[in-house]
Amino acid sequence: MATQIGVVLPGDPIPLDSVIPPSTSEPVIQLGPGTLHIPPSTILPVRAGALTASTTSTPTTSTTTIYVDNSTGRYTPAVHDVVIGTVASRFGDLENAYYRVLLPSSTAPQGILAASAFANAASRKTRPNLLPGTVVYARVAAMSLALGEPELECFDERTGKEAGFGELKGGMVADISVGLARRLLLLSSAAAAKANSGRLSVVDVLGQTLAFEIAVGRNGRIWVNSDSCATTVAVIRAIQETEFMTYHDMQDHVAKIVKNLQRSQK
Fold first, then answer.
1. In the list 66, 113, 160, 247, which could disulfide-bond 152, CB 3.0-4.6 Å?
2. What sign does the CA torsion over 195, 196, 197, 203 have?
3. Dist CA 107 CA 117 (whole Å)
4. Which CATH class, in words, describes the domain spanning 2-69?
5. What would the CATH number be for the domain defined by 82-169?
6. Do 82-169 and 2-69 fall under one CATH topology?
7. What is the pLDDT of residues 160-207, one digit of tens each?
């Protein structure tokens, strides 16, 4: 889970003890966008924004990715980020097939997704056959130094299972700011909500009265699916329109949108 440490300016020193969990005995540190390593052990931000640490753990190692995030500008891919993209084309042979996935509003406009990089895709017969225009929910597994493009995977790296990754069928895709995407992902767990004084995200507030599915991409895209187009559009509107509202104004605006939706469906 990603954790926001605080706001930094270019040149501010980043103390490692502020971003590494205290329980981590032998941490692995990975630098993401907006950071610079000056040997031997100095790390500096090179742009203003929110200093963010994302920690992933396995039974043997714990890796903390440090990056500087802000609400404006284009998305810069970083390892472990979840993204929503659109399949543009397929290339390669039958045994080693790959997809080019478009990542709008990104400094890397497309990524590479192997046909084998899905859960239960060990053999060619079980691999998905994605057509151009297919929307996928993926994770940035690595950055290709040769191609300068992110390498994507559609499974949970800890369990090897699908865990919501893969083709997103039906629904609608909409754009939001990269800052809003970051905040929605930060508040997507009970622990994060508790750290935010118990305040729920707009998605959780909507979920109290409406039934829908949602996927949030770190690249500033959301996918929403429900049993009606009207509900899907209402959810997208609520998320987009409440970005800069106070918490109480957001609750009031969501209640108004839900009330109008329910009235129109009678």
1. 113
2. negative
3. 23
4. mainly beta
5. 2.40.50.140
6. yes
7. 888 889 999 999 999 998 888 888 887 765 445 554 556 788 999 999
